[in-house]
């Protein structure tokens, strides 16, 4: 048997010289800074690394940091911070930045002409990426799980993990550098996107992917973004109608997350095949000119209807069988689709969760965000009660199958005592009263200001307050208890609330006071409802004081952080701001209803103008003004007024600018018309020749010069 060669001593492994191994280290340190070196694996020298026993996220993060030349102490501290936030907060980056996620996405979603970077499904080890200069990755765009270069864009304020130049855009950056970039778009400016997806991007370059969340369906993205051959846009948007060019099979640059089953469940009813209509479109045609022509034809048809007393409506809606010209049939169907008005499909958060569930990447955090997105549409009256109930039933099934059911966990202490220990965090569902921010308010104030009760009891008047106090007395609730913060209110009152409300509220016409809602429970510490999260986050989004994009992006970052259970202080701050907004709605609503001539009525709609300098600072935002419009419509309905769409004008945060919002009422199942103010707003503003801004989150929002409001309303009255 051959004798193996002896193992050399520590030191020189190439020959048999007995050189101490420390001599090589001392030689390597010559010429370097005399900074203190620490051993990152020693718990005494680097305690941050060992403060948590769970360190699965730490390794990759430290590797990425070391590649950028960061000190070991900084890498370890940052890795621990990201690990703790990923475990407790459960941000969306848990879904996108886990090693398993990169493996699957790299294998399934990568371009066939480009090998994925890092460890793939079939690869045995992770290839080390070369260090990059501080200027950022190639092309200035960071890595994505879907493609090598990607950019995630959101509308109406946002948070950026890294700005377009590779630097953090605000203090709170989310996500791991080198994976994806979250960039908000607030003013409809697509010039930044052009730098990465425009014609200058050749087909030989690595593919660039853009994910548009809750924006983009209504625009011809292929034309607006001027997409290059290596660029792809993925759209997850609940706004309807969808631009037909985005759905066409000829358009391989834009992919809309869209299923026919979801569209069949929308509130508005239409009996034509939208994908087939999209495939009949010519992508190279001047679609905007066609839409303008269609708009003129529609206006002419409406004028004929008015002159004929409605008889031309039957003539205009001719069946396809009687029309032999396919071009005319196509134009007619396209005109009907675009002029249905705006409405909403399945919430974007629910679509994203369905995608993660299909990929088996669903987590409790993503499920909670889906619950919040569905509740957002319900709170802001973007879907019918029937569709909301269907969505609730679907999410309840996911909650039950995800291990969120109530379970008794017994823990035995050292002395043998058994105690009940709650789960760290879980999602539950239960019937919740239509009382706004009850957990952060008092029962009396919540009933006084919530739109559901305030509009029915008319709590802005002395008689309405008397009714409210009488109702509480009949239920046996002491006024002193009801005026305490709900968190510290009498437990006996809390226990009896549901039974007493079910007993007495139907006498006041409040028959649907309770609705199915979702709760996030975090041990014994917190109990947050999805509706409260919607109120708080919406208030944070609309609390910027200036209109520049940096301020709006900062507020988006604050709102993004507020979605996490570890940032309840930010969420509670948003809830308190939402309470101020609701009080302003009650004040201005009572003034508009009781003051004669404040609400002007036209043939097709009503409109009101807010001029209070104090409350306009709270209500001069699109979503807050929309809530005010719905409050007025509910109050007018309770007074017996005929239902009409309502417009509200309010001073904007910009100097000498006015924000105008139009609502057509709560969606009704089987309706044939949505919110028709979008096209009417643009046409009226163009015809009077005034400068306007119409690229807001909803097409029924528009910003005009303050001096042009009256002429705009006159022209709008003539068109509608």
Automatic annotation (TrEMBL):
Biased composition (Acidic residues): 287-308
Region feature Disordered, mapped onto this chain: 32-189, 287-325
Localization terms from the record: Nucleus
Biased composition (Polar residues): 48-61, 95-110
Cross-referenced InterPro entries: CDC45, TypeIII_avirulence_cleave
Gene Ontology MF term list: chromatin binding; DNA replication origin binding; single-stranded DNA binding
Keywords: Cell cycle, DNA replication, Nucleus
Residue ranges, compositional bias (Basic and acidic residues): 164-173
A biological process from GO: DNA replication initiation
GO CC annotations, alphabetized: DNA replication preinitiation complex
Ranges for domain RIN4 pathogenic type III effector avirulence factor Avr cleavage site: 3-32
Domain of life where this protein originates: Eukaryota
Main location: nucleus
Protein family membership: Belongs to the CDC45 family.
Name of the protein this chain belongs to: RIN4 pathogenic type III effector avirulence factor Avr cleavage site domain-containing protein
């Amino acid at each position: 048997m051959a004798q193996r060669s002896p193992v050399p001593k520590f030191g020189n492994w190439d020959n048999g010289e007995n050189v101490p191994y420390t001599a090589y280290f001392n030689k390597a340190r010559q010429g370097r800074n005399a900074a203190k070196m620490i051993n990152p694996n020693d718990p005494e020298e680097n305690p941050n690394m060992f403060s948590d026993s769970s360190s699965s996220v730490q390794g990759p993060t430290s590797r990425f940091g070391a590649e950028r030349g960061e000190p070991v102490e900084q890498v370890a501290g940052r890795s621990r911070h990201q690990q703790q936030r990923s475990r407790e907060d459960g941000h969306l980056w848990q879904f996108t930045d886990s090693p398993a996620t990169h493996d699957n996405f790299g294998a399934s979603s990568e371009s066939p002409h480009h090998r994925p970077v890092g460890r793939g499904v079939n690869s045995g080890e992770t290839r080390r990426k070369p260090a990059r200069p501080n200027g950022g990755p190639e092309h200035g765009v960071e890595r994505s799980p879907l493609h090598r270069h990607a950019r995630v864009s959101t509308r109406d304020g946002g948070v950026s993990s890294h700005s377009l130049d590779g630097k953090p855009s605000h203090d709170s950056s989310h996500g791991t550098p080198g994976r994806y970039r979250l960039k908000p778009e607030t003013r409809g400016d697509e010039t930044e996107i052009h730098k990465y997806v425009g014609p200058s991007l050749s087909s030989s370059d690595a593919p660039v992917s853009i994910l548009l969340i809750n924006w983009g369906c209504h625009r011809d993205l292929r034309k607006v973004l001027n997409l290059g051959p290596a660029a792809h846009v993925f759209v997850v948007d609940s706004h309807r109608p969808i631009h037909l060019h985005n759905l066409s099979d000829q358009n391989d640059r834009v992919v809309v997350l869209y299923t026919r089953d979801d569209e069949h469940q929308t509130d508005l009813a239409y009996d034509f095949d939208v994908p087939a209509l999209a495939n009949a479109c010519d992508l190279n045609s001047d679609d905007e000119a066609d839409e303008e022509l269609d708009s003129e034809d529609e206006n002419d048809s409406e004028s004929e209807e008015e002159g004929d007393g409605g008889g031309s409506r039957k003539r205009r809606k001719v069946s396809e069988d009687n029309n032999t010209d396919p071009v005319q049939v196509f134009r007619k169907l396209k005109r009907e689709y675009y002029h249905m008005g705006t409405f909403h499909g399945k919430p974007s958060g629910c679509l994203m969760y369905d995608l993660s569930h299909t990929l088996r990447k669903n987590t409790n955090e993503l499920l909670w965000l889906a619950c919040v997105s569905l509740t957002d549409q319900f709170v802001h009256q973007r879907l019918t009660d029937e569709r909301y109930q269907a969505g609730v039933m679907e999410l309840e099934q996911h909650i039950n199958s995800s291990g969120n059911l109530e379970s008794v966990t017994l823990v035995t202490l050292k002395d043998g005592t058994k105690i009940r220990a709650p789960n760290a965090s879980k999602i539950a569902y239960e019937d919740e009263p239509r009382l706004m921010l009850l957990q952060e308010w008092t029962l009396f104030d919540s009933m006084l200001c919530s739109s559901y009760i305030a509009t029915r009891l008319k709590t802005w008047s002395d008689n309405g307050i008397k009714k409210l106090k009488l109702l509480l007395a009949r239920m046996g609730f002491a006024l002193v208890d009801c005026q305490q913060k709900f968190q510290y209110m009498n437990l006996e009152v809390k226990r009896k609330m549901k039974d007493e409300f079910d007993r007495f509220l139907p006498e006041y016409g409040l028959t649907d006071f309770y609705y199915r809602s979702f709760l996030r429970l975090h041990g014994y510490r917190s109990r947050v409802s999805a509706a409260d999260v919607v109120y708080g986050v919406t208030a944070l989004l609309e609390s910027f004081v200036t209109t520049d994009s940096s301020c709006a992006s900062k507020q988006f970052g604050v709102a993004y952080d507020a979605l996490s259970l570890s940032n309840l202080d930010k969420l509670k701050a948003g809830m308190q701001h939402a309470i101020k907004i609701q009080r302003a709605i009650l004040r201005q609503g009572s003034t508009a209803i009781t003051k004669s001539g404040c609400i002007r009525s036209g043939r097709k709609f009503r409109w009101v103008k807010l001029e209070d300098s104090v409350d306009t600072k709270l209500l001069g935002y699109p979503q807050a003004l929309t809530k005010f419009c719905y409050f007025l419509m509910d109050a007018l309905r309770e007074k017996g007024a005929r239902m009409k769409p309502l417009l509200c004008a309010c001073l904007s945060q910009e100097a000498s600018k006015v924000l105008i919002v139009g609502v057509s009422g709560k969606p009704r199942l089987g309706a044939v018309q949505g919110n028709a103010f979008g096209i009417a707003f643009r046409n009226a503003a163009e015809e009077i020749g005034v400068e306007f801004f119409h690229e807001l989150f909803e097409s029924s929002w528009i910003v005009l010069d303050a001096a042009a409001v009256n002429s705009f309303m006159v022209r709008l009255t003539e068109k509608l």
